[in-house]
Amino acid sequence: METTVQSLIAKYGADPAQIIAMLQDLQSAKRYLPVEDLRALAESLAIPLARIYRIATFFKAFSLEPKGEHIINVCMGTACHVRGAGRILDELKRQLGVEQGCTTDDQHFSLETVNCLGACALGPVVVVDQEYHGDMQAGQVKKLVEQYR
Amino acid sequence: MKKIASFQELEAYCQECVAARDPQRTVITICAGTGCQAHGCTNVVAAAQQELEKQGLVDVELKATGCHGFCEQGPLMVIHPQGVLYHKVKVDDVPEVIAKTVKGGEVIDALLYALPSTKEKIALEQDVPFYKLQKRIIFGSNGLIDPTSIDDYLAIGGYRALAKALADMTPGGVVEEVKKAGLRGRGGGGFPTGRKWESTLNVAGETKYVICNADEGDPGAYMDRSLLEGNPHSVIEGMLLGAYAVGATEGYVYVRHEYPLAVANLTIAIDVARQAGLLGERILGSNFSFDIKISRGGGAFVCGESSALIASIEGQVGEPRAKHIHMAESGLWGKPTVLNNVETWANVPVIIAKGADWFRSIGTEGSPGTKIFSLVGKVNNTGLVEVPMGISLRKIIFDIGGGIPGGRAFKAVQTGGPSGGCIPEEHLDLPVDFDELSKVGSMMGSGGMIVMDDRTCMVDVAKYFVNFLKGESCGKCTTCREGIARMYEILDKITRGEGELTDLELLEELAPVIQEGSMCGLGKTAPNPVLSTLRYFRAEYLAHINDKKCPAGVCKELIRFEIDPEACTGCHKCARVCPVEAAHGKKKEAHEIDQEKCIKCGMCYEACKFDAVKII
After folding, report:
1. Which residue of B has its CA nearest to A128?
2. What are the residues facing B28 on neighbouring strands?
3. What is the pTM of this model?
4. Is pLDDT at B19 greater than 70 in this prediction?
5. Do B54 and B103 touch, CB atoms closer than 8 A?
């Protein structure tokens, strides 16, 4: 079933306490939070749009911008950091021509970072969509990106 | 799952579960925690299932379990009852394992773990030093049970502590036992759990809540995730005991949204426990009713802080509030609330089942019991280790962790995440517990232990944590919001070679202001990584400032890559990998790096097989 504001209300009830769960469902269905949905949600829950915006911009899980087709996530946990995650990220930025948190112009890739995936033994780790790529080296980045082009 | 309506029925059903498990039967357990899944264990499990059918071994049981802890060596496979451990198992290895080991009882040498020092092969899981030196009271069950099977948990004694408490103990009695055990909060603060419960028990109120904090935002720590993924019923049972003790009827587990497997396994466990009558109305036929809901976090480190976490469950922005009113009186929805971390909850059933005296016999006087650490970074055996409190850092890092890879020198170990500090070699014999770690300027935190070698720059590490906290500060307190940002600017300046000596004074002046002026733990502890590195590694700061050098070879602006013409064979590998054509030279002649073009990506350094590329 398509995730719409109606379906969210049906699932969680018109309960403002459930707003974070609702936004999470919306985010995973649409890969971002479209403004028209947020407006409709504010109306259905009878709360100010500003409150929803505040939550949507506070938590990392949410994005107000559409995401790319493939999401490249570089783990920046401490274990990955000391094993050279910074250089992997630099090389990804160079290969994709975008800063972290941004999406390529062709909407193909979004480059993100996460503060720890808890897969420290594989560090440095890059996750593309749901696939893990462990023990990364800067030299392997180009090949990795090509794999998803 | 059929509903269990009384203590007698539970006991009978548990006996059935135990009887159904013939200790002589061959059981293959494959670690299916997030780490091993990332190593590709899902395909190994599927291949093993297929191969067992193909080779007609219908009697052999296959279990995909939670994290075994030995993450560096995954995917891990253990063949019981002998306990043969195979590491780094690939799909292609599976037919041989089934044919030789499972069918023929023969051990395959190539798949055994070898000691890094002597290359000696070790066949049995229990003999591997990594496991042998641990005391896995809480975490050990992970390798034995299927997290989606309540029967597995019941077969190892699960939910007996709950039955014991409901049948024989008063709520006050449960609180007393936890107090007597001296259990301290494993989330980091180390506050006595029993005292926390007692305050909530003593507050009048119809509605009370218990919450499990599974937000685990510390980068480099993942024991809570692994417990929740691998043994969700132990956390549920702990929460049930806590709820009974304080008189709560409803509970929440607040889980990080980055932990999908933990959410999935916990959801199954809650559903099954509810069907079994272990959650819901009149549990096991008693007068006690309790149920649990899952609340997924939105991805904010500050939500690990109790008042921010509660705000988040209530559907508010996850900002902390001043704690002049205690959560024991006014927590979630303004009701009395107990909040403990995953590992704390998982300790509770063990304490109730085996008693406070038994628990106190492990660990130290001030910090009884065990602690699970995630041993990560520059260490050979990356993974989760559970050890009695009081064990030395040296034992954890060198005996269990197997030391530093590549024969490099140990430099420091960082404990306590962004709230903690870096501990140098001189303190390696420190017994690890809540109080000792604080004494040397670090803290327990949730148990992250990040090992650093001589190729780790301590100024860069301090900058890393401060940068992390800068992004995670909710911004409510000026000292935290502005102070951390200023600290970051100063550290960044130093790592770029633009630091001055007065910057160090400024950092030391800022630290107490941030500590004293911030409301919650995030700000109060934020300067710790900076202060501890300044305390123990001041020389490294000075090298950055005075000599414009990064001794560890990390800070890009202060290093350059050069090729040693003596060592270079002219294999041309560096030139091939260089993305900007900075490395160049004729074949079979010494190469060079054009410093103007070089972007310091380090690919030539990684690629060179002759150690000819040097970081200067």
Report:
1. B38
2. B62, B79
3. 0.94
4. yes
5. no
